[in-house]
Design goal:
By secondary structure, the protein is α/β, with parallel strands linked by helices. It has eleven helices and 17 strands. The strands form three sheets. It has an eight-stranded parallel barrel with strand order 1-2-4-5-6-9-10-17, surrounded by five helices. Strand 14 and strand 15 form a beta hairpin. The longest helix is centred in the middle third of the chain and has 25 residues. Belongs to the glycosyl hydrolase 18 family. Chitinase class V subfamily.
Length: about 375
């Protein structure tokens, strides 16, 4: 009997170690959503280790995680579809998003019963649809109480995932979250200990720092460095590490899109040039694919700025800030040198013939040194 008990304990420990090894692999990820203009079957999943399917919704009455009827088929078939080209790619169901109602998330997280409804329904939905993990995209908690409740949610989510895995005999679902580029947002601190204990990693959204509706001069919305301040990817990474999150739980996010500013003077076209809002409607957002077409069609001048690590182009009174291949390579190598778990892109459909995705994968796979102290 003792021998059998020891063997059981050994096998259990070995299983846990194997699970830890599997979750510690590098992350080369991208987000996809059904209305992006790219079918899931057209994703080149060989370029990714993980793919996020966005977004599941949070019901404002029941606090259960749901998928709209129009998304049922693409979501339920997502994993098997992308695994046709890459059987090892891991998929996660992302919940929320920038257009979701933050007050509903706050209400859900404020009570143990509604948190349980969220947690149980998310796990069931992930299992029913064949996802290997869940991703929380709450943008953003609005009070110190929200942040404290987020901590409770993550603690309970992790416990429920472990229990479900133990009962089902399946590997535990991955748990991740998309968070601000820095550990403080709206003057509020994220719950560091709960994030460290409850999540496999966090996706740092190191973009959307500026756009033409919030700045009257041209800017990079996703600069790696900010020589004059603290609005940059490198600052955010350093701040998260200083706050207590291990570098190997950080995944660095960069955009496959840019913003188009309307220049006040076509002859003044550098960084911080006076601008008069966005080009076109909305906030001026433009995909990398559209940017490449603009450059070709307008014979636009392109510039790489190595000081902040960003690209921009201009033609006439249009100025576009974005990430091109050199910027992507530099960011990926920076993440690797800092010892980060990996990178992700928002969003894969915005790429142009997979140029940026290929560049990122190649840079991560290069022989650059992992200088932890850089």
């Amino acid at each position: 009997m003792a021998t059998k008990t020891l063997l059981f304990l050994f096998l259990s420990l070995f299983s846990l170690l194997q699970q830890n090894v599997s979750t510690a692999q590098n992350v080369n990820a991208g987000y996809w959503f059904p209305d992006s203009g790219l079918a899931a079957s057209d994703i080149d999943s060989t370029l990714f280790t993980h793919l996020f399917c966005a977004f599941a919704d949070l019901d404002s009455q029941t606090y259960q995680v749901t998928v709209s009827s129009s998304n049922t088929s693409p979501f339920s078939l997502f994993t098997q579809t992308v695994q046709l080209k890459n059987p090892s790619v891991q998929t996660l169901l992302s919940i929320g998003g920038g257009n979701s109602d933050t007050t509903v998330f706050a209400s859900m997280a404020s009570d143990s019963t509604s948190r349980k409804a969220f947690i149980d329904s998310s796990i069931k939905l992930a299992r029913d649809y064949g996802f290997l993990g869940l991703d929380l995209d709450w943008e953003y908690p609005q009070s110190a109480l929200d942040m404290a409740n987020l901590g409770l949610l993550l603690n309970e989510w992790r416990a429920a995932v472990a229990t479900e895995a133990g009962n089902s005999g399946k590997p535990p679902l991955l748990l991740t979250a998309a968070v601000s580029y820095a550990p403080t947002v709206n003057g509020l601190n994220y719950p560091i200990q709960s994030i460290s204990n409850g999540l496999d990693w966090i996706n740092l959204m190191a973009y959307d720092f500026y756009d033409p509706t919030r700045s009257d001069v041209t800017r990079s919305h996703a600069a790696l460095y900010d020589p004059t301040g603290q609005v940059s990817g490198s600052y955010g990474i350093g701040a998260w590490i200083q706050a207590g999150i291990s570098a190997n739980k950080l995944v660095f996010g960069f955009p496959f899109y840019g913003y188009a500013w309307l220049l006040v003077n076509a002859n003044n076209h550098g960084l911080y040039a006076p601008a008069n809002g966005p080009v076109g409607s909305g906030n001026g957002a433009i995909t990398f694919q559209q940017i490449e077409a603009f450059i070709t069609n307008n014979k636009a001048t392109t510039v790489y700025n190595g000081t902040i690590v960003s690209d921009y182009c201009y033609a006439g009174t249009t100025w576009i800030g974005y990430d091109d291949t050199q910027t992507i390579s530099t960011k990926v190598l920076y993440a690797k040198q800092r010892g980060l778990l990996g990178y992700f892109a928002w969003h894969v459909a915005a790429d142009n013939n997979w140029v940026l995705s290929q560049q990122a994968q190649q840079a991560w796979g290069s022989n650059a040194s992992r200088d932890q102290g850089k």
